[in-house]
Amino acid sequence: MRIYLIGYMGCGKSTLGKRLAKHLNLEFVDMDHYIEMRNHKTIPQIFAEEGESEFRKKERKALEELSEFSNIVIATGGGAPCFFDNIDLMNQTGATIYMNIDPAILADRLIHSKTERPLIKGKTKEELIVFIDEMLTKRRPFYSQAKHEITEPDIELKVIEEMIS
Question: Is 0.85 topped by the overall pTM?
Answer without folding.
Answer: yes
